[in-house]
């Protein structure tokens, strides 16, 4: 039901000075008490603050004592088992993306989830392996540990055979070192309350980045799908070179491997579609990936795919847990850029999912604590040879939809992974790698659907579309680390660009209201006669200060420089007229006194003597040429070039300009100087300038920037545009609304 009402407010017109008197604005000392008082308050509240600090740092101490086994135990157990079953195939498959043995994918699904249980604040996200981070780790491990560095020796010569054991061992070290460093970066950012960094990754940027990363994953899995061995390329355009090399090797495709891949992909797609179709009737989704892995392992074992058809398999999977080890710190210098990218991307994915579920279920997620929790999960996991992890969208959705209530579901999932590592790991030694690659490709289907963003953004926001395309292209061509950096820089550049190219408008009054809107977009908005109300849609600062001034001149129709010249011309002409009049008056006086006589009666003779001798030049009706008058005549000739017609839309009936700064949330020293110049320049042409709608923070910045003076005071700042309009000279205003003095 639409409710319409009216209201009437009667008050005095408020400028900034009067507003401060009425509101009693607090000083800095009122807002910030003395240091001694703060120390006393701090000591008085030490115990409660310490308790809150401990609870914030260890959220498990807050919710675990309140945990109800009867209410949450069974839902968390069912949800944990479902997520744990998903961990097994995803952990082993994503280990291939990270270019490490599959068992380390299982480790990455175990240790970080247990650490997050103690420090995390989200109840529904599932911490473990994730496609994008696995690809990013894989780009690091393959760059620092390429196959050509581990060729076996035959005496003094190198052979074409790769020492897989040595290569994988070093790649695990690289992955662990990168993970530890990335985790430490996350912890550091969380401690300094840098959780807001995720806000700089806009949704179009993140979606384009993950889409491009999915394309990286496809290229990385092609060698397992087709059973070929392309060369390893690094640096910019490496994906292009790899794709070209794979295409050149297609005639050498290993047909048994391709058959396994095609069959697995077809079955997975069909099973997932059935899962989706019957999702409303199934209490728990069918674990398609786990069934595929078990079936493929059994078939491979009984048909001996590896020995009879040379289909590449996972190989030896050690049972039991490996002891912790200190990562190789000498690698840190080579991977610091990659570690930072992993830290930012992993946090952005986790916090976005965490906030989504928190909003849906009515609880709060602490962004800084999430950064610390994720960092500790990665840093501690790195000591157990894990690679970088974050929350997974697919597993998190399963955990939420199957009834998970708390972080205990993550513990139940970790127990499933632990049992697999301890007892069931060796059973998957005959699993074909092509099956794991197929699982990766099918799971990327959701990422591929994000290409539809192009159509959506084309309709809604062209700038966001450009951000999406630039992010995708830069990530594809420059790889994941440089691509992310280039994308963030470009996204920030678009923000600066938008503030440099805002919408400038002249406001008019809505009849019978105190509202003012753009006259170009609203038919009923009427300009106030003699008053120009100018507004920018963006804040005013150094990057757009000059554009603001140019727009003000254009919208008001006042070319200040030409108008000042014109005014000086008129003043010069007036001075010359006054001087001519003064000279004529003097000459007239001289003529009148020229006939005065002085009578000399010496010896009885009367002499008539002129008082002042005259020259012929002085009898002329012209001016006596002097240096000053010559200069004025030259200036006059120059100023004759400027006429009213050349001044553009110049109307002398504009006597006031109101600058609406309600959209400005900060103002820097460059903009303050520009505002000073506006006041000074318009004062020279007898146009008054007023400012309206300033926030308190902007007023304080104006004070610190020495904006106010004897000529520019707070009496020229008003609480609203309407106050400023009412303050303008009333006898020169014919508004479209009857302005009440106290409205």
UniProtKB/TrEMBL annotation:
Residues 575-634 are annotated as: Disordered. Keywords: Membrane, Transmembrane, Transmembrane helix. Its main location: membrane. Residues 623-633 have a biased composition (Polar residues). GO terms for molecular function: secondary active sulfate transmembrane transporter activity. Pfam families: STAS (PF01740), Sulfate_transp (PF00916). Residues 575-589 have a biased composition (Basic residues). It comes from the Eukaryota. The keyword Transmembrane helix applies. The chain crosses the membrane at residues 94-119, 125-145, 174-201, 253-270, 282-302, 339-359, 406-424, 468-497. InterPro entries: S04_transporter_CS, SLC26A/SulP_dom, SLC26A/SulP_fam, STAS_dom, STAS_dom_sf. It is a multi-pass membrane protein. It is found in: Membrane. GO terms for cellular component: membrane. The keyword Transmembrane helix applies. Residues 521-728 form the STAS domain. CDD domains: STAS_SulP_like_sulfate_transporter. Residues 590-601 have a biased composition (Basic and acidic residues). PANTHER family: SULFATE TRANSPORTER (PTHR11814). This is Solute carrier family 26 member 6, like 1.
